[in-house]
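Notes, Module 5: Reading structure tokens.

Key idea: the token line is not a picture. It is a compressed description, and you learn to read it the same way you learned to read a sequence, by spotting repeated patterns. We will look at two proteins. The first is printed below with its tokens.
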Amino acid sequence: MAFTNRTGTLSRYGTAAGTGALAVLVLVAVAGSPAYVGWAGNHTDPNSAAGWYLRVLAWPAWRIDAGDRAGGVLAADLRAILLVILAAALLYVLPASQVARVPGGFSQFFSGWAAFVLAGGLAGLLATFLGPGPSMLGALQAASAGAGYGFLTGWIIGTASLGGRA
């Protein structure tokens, strides 16, 4: 039933949560990739707005190998993995169009954006607590960085959520 609309035929569009989750996966896969993280670190100016923003996009950095990081690849990539899982879950849990006073695209956009802000903060917090060497200060700093990342990049997820049906 999830793939059908009210008339029973196959829908040409996915759900708002589904398109948002796909956008999260693509954003984390591309902007968190080792190639992009290396490029942003070496070819952008951190003192310019554009360079700083391109570096912010690399926050959920993931690695193919753990390098010298304790705990292996899973610990090195925990933040990116949690971000994708939590954002997808929150996009499905926050039913914007069912509870919004203003139905339609406006509520889908802000629901997608809010889900990504919350997912970024939770991913930073949980990755620090579940990773090697957990500390309360580190968890709070990571949650702040994650929520900031979600706030500054969540418009991408909100925009992707516009295309789907509620």
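Here is the second protein, with the sequence above and the tokens below, as before.
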Amino acid sequence: MKGEALIRETVETVCELFERGDYNPTAIIDLGVLVANADGTIDDDEVEALRLIFGRLLRTQLDVDLVSPLIVASREVIDAAGVGSRLRLIAEILKDCDAVEEGVIVALGIAYSSEGFSASERTLIASLAQACNLPSSRLEELIETVRLAVEAP
């Protein structure tokens, strides 16, 4: 996965912050699926990114066969709640855990994992940042940080 070191470190921080806040990683799993599916398709590179991130969140090795049911379950929850409602709940959890920037970095890592940072992914992540009260200037800085990590040799 492109930018794997940054994403791995950030996921570890998210795990610590979520444990401290007494949350399970479901919100980050749903965030990952929201971003991966922002364009309506979750491609193989995005599945691989989700596999790595979910494995770190759940503190286990996951193969692709185990990731697919997590994606399906997450999509069902998102469909039932609605994208906007689920995104707002994720934002509240990130704020409560003081994990806003980390959540955005994980989302950006997934966005950059395949064909690049698409307009639909940018819109979704901008909505998350807004719901988290993250200033747009800081979002742009995080985008640049992840972009540089992804493009590093």
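Summary for the second protein:
- Residues 25 and 58 are 7 Å apart (CA to CA).
- Residues 64-81 form the longest helix (18 residues).
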